[in-house]
Design brief:
74 residues, mainly alpha, rod-shaped
């Protein structure tokens, strides 16, 4: 039961991070298209990359916790 809860919580964080990434990516592309503020574009790109890396790490954690859960609970 513990691994099911761990998988569920990590899964929620993963989904939230992916949705956040999509919103930040949209903000980045809109700022790149419409704005001449290079500092804003750089900041949004850095934030987009950070959330993207976090999403990848959470995906690996979600997959690992799912595999452990299936191994232990069948």
């Amino acid at each position: 039961m513990t691994w099911t809860l761990i998988w569920f919580v990590v899964n929620i964080f993963f989904v939230v991070s992916v949705v956040t990434y999509m919103f930040i990516h949209r903000s980045y592309t809109e700022a790149r298209r419409q704005s001449n503020d290079a500092a804003l574009v750089r900041r949004l790109n850095a934030m987009r990359m950070l959330v993207g890396i976090l999403s990848i790490v959470l995906f690996v954690a979600m997959s690992a916790s799912f595999m452990v859960n299936m191994r232990l609970n069948g």
